[in-house]
Amino acid sequence: MSSFFDLKARKAAAANGTLSTSGEKQKEENPRVQPWVEKYRPKTLSDVTAQDHTTAVLQRTLQASNLPHMLFYGPPGTGKTSTILALAKELYGPEMLRSRVLELNASDERGISIVREKVKDFARMQLTNPPGGGYRARYPCPPFKIIILDEADSMTQDAQSALRRTMETYSKITRFCLICNYVTRIIDPLASRCSKFRFKSLDTGNARRRLEDIAALEDVVLAEGAVDALIRCSEGDLRKAITYLQSAARLVGATAAAAGDADEMEVDGEGEGITVKIVEDIAGVIPDATMQKLVKAIHPPKSGNAYEAVAAAVKEMVADGWSATKTMTQLYHIVVYDEMIPDIKKNRIVTVFSEMDKRLVDGANEHLSMLDLSLRISEILAGR
Sorted alphabetically, which SMART domains does this protein's record hold (predicted)? Predict the structure, then answer.
């Protein structure tokens, strides 16, 4: 302890390698506490799942060491950010990555000041020379930097307009990669300067293989149907599915705990691993029995009106804490896939769902919105 305050002793200990810094300690502990989404993020383009066309085109540009400005768009959790980061790692390697790549989340920093300050300052920085010793033989290190703007569809129109001029001015030494969920929210002058790459939702087969691989690497026990439940609850978002998998593993103690962590883990005594019910609980899926109560109340009785039954069912769901968005999503699937409901009535019901979705997005009261939705569906089913 006394040597800690002695600068000479600290320097000597550091020289001998006996003094471990907090950064080194953090680095050693990272693999254990790191989220699986980051731990299993693709390291190379060949690791990217189910985006064959995009990765094939980027592989060719990687060989030519020449990139255009790029626009990645598609649903969340399909590998957009992972793909550009993997490409950057293959282009620059670990030593040049920090000085050549700037990643900004545009949803947090989306004003015009960010474009004028951070983006512009990085874009006009002079390029640093790559290290010697055969580094260029392993990594191309092309003569340009990459600026990644994640969630660019959240940027204001003024910021996007300012970015257009920046892209033109510094195109010789800087390439931009815009990442968004909705390509229609990117202004046309900006989108026209980029090569567009569409990322589609992962199909069941690719998502299943990826989840099973991660489960095997983490020694996670998966009960029958658990993978299907993960895919269904994540709705094509692989990032969400991996997060659910990690949460479920921590909940039941299905992960093989590292030494010293066993006492902290809540180990399931039965050892059955991750079940469908556990996945649904973590994902916030409303139980079938609860949904069936609402569906039964919505179907109009032979005599009288359905108001009291519907109001009681909705009140119970609100009291149990189920969100209106989740309730509406599950009710939508139940109604749309019900073969006993005529198509003409389904068309009217879908219109009601769209109106309610808009109301909830605008911040309407969830209880009243769900009550209105249920009663209007009940009226349509009754033929009124």
Answer: AAA (SM00382)
Q: 167 and 108 in one domain?
A: yes
Token pair of 46 as six digits: 């060949």
4 phi and psi angles, rounded to 5 deg: -65, -35
Domain span holding position 27: 2-33
Q: Which of 260, 269, 229, 224 is nearest to 247 (CA)?
A: 229
Q: Which of 127, 149, 41 minimizes the C-alpha distance to 89?
A: 41
Q: What's the confidence (pLDDT) of residue 11?
A: 44
| Closest C-alpha among 80, 83, 77, 166 to residue 117 | 166
Q: Cα–Cα distance between 67 and 272 in angstroms, integer?
A: 49
pTM of the model: 0.75
83, 126 Cβ separation under 8 angstroms: no
CA 339, CA 130: separation in Å to the nearest integer?
Answer: 64
Q: Which tokens in the block code for residue 107?
A: 């949803």
182 shares a domain with 106: yes
**137: CB partners within 8 A, 6+ apart:** none
Q: In the chain, which stretches have pLDDT less than 70? A: 1-33, 106-111, 254-272, 302-304, 384
Same domain, 158 and 254: no
Q: What pLDDT score was predicted for residue 183?
A: 92
CB 233 within 8 A of CB 245: no
Residues 62 and 192 in one domain: yes
Partnered with residue 274 across adjacent β-strands are: 222
Bridge partner list, 222: 274
**Structure confidence at residue 178 (pLDDT):** 94
Amino acid making up residue 287: P
- Provide the 3-class DSSP secondary structure of residue 122: helix
CATH of the domain at 358: 1.20.272.10
In this structure, are residues 215 and 196 in contact, taking their beta carbons and an 8 Å threshold? no
Q: Residue-wise over 265-301: b if at least 16 C-beta within 10 A, else e?
A: beebeeeebbbbebbbebbebbeeebbebbbebbebe
> What is the number of structural domains in the chain?
4
Nearest to 108 by CA among 154, 157, 161: 154
- Cα dist. 13→10, 170, 342 in Å? 5, 47, 79
For 239, the token pair is 């990032």
Do residues 193 and 209 share a domain? no
